[in-house]
Design a protein that fits this description.
By secondary structure, the chain is mostly helical. Helix content is 63%, strand content 0%.
């Protein structure tokens, strides 16, 4: 007898939530708040890799770690550019 409505998630092969959080923080950190989201992506990714190993989001966690490292490096590059140009300045029309 066929069981309708069953999904693969019910069989126990769910992706680790920490791996998803790591990947999302890494991607969003490329555009916004990279000094905050970059380290979070690294931390979430490390926890996810420790929990899941190579299965259930291990690759996603590794991608989150790499993106988190890129976020932190990007922040340092932007900081170096800002300091070489005399710092940050905001000009609102008028």
């Amino acid at each position: 007898m066929a069981s309708y409505g069953s999904s693969s998630a019910a069989s126990g092969s769910r992706t680790n939530g920490m791996a998803i959080a790591s990947l999302v923080c890494g991607i969003v950190g490329l555009f916004l708040l990279n000094i905050v989201l970059g380290p979070l992506a690294i931390i979430f990714g490390a926890v996810a890799r420790r929990q899941a190993g190579a299965r259930n989001g291990g690759g996603m966690a590794k991608a989150g770690i790499v993106l988190g490292i890129i976020d932190v490096v990007l922040w340092f590059v932007l900081l170096a550019i800002a300091t070489s140009n005399g710092g940050f300045s905001w000009y609102v029309g008028g």
